[in-house]
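Notes from hallway chat w/ T.B., transcribed later so I don't forget. T.B. wanted the structure written out for a chain they're using in a teaching module, and asked if we could keep both sequence and structure tokens in one place. Agreed to drop them here.
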Amino acid sequence: QSDSVASDSAASKPVANNAMGNTEQFIGNKNSQVFHRSTCSGLPSEKNRVLFDTREKAVAEVYRPCPSCRP
């Protein structure tokens, strides 16, 4: 796994500011390769989550933005 991805257990923990001072977290689905805003109603189950600090890191890992929450 890339170092841009947090551990699965971090999914329920608060997020610290990332390098850009932003606290937004992006959550990817391991199965569909789609990433979401943390507030999206279509989040995957805990076991299928991959966490990203930035949108750019999710895209670099070849995840697609969710069409609902448009991260």
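Follow-up for T.B.: The first strand starts at residue 5 and ends at 6. Might be a good example for the class.
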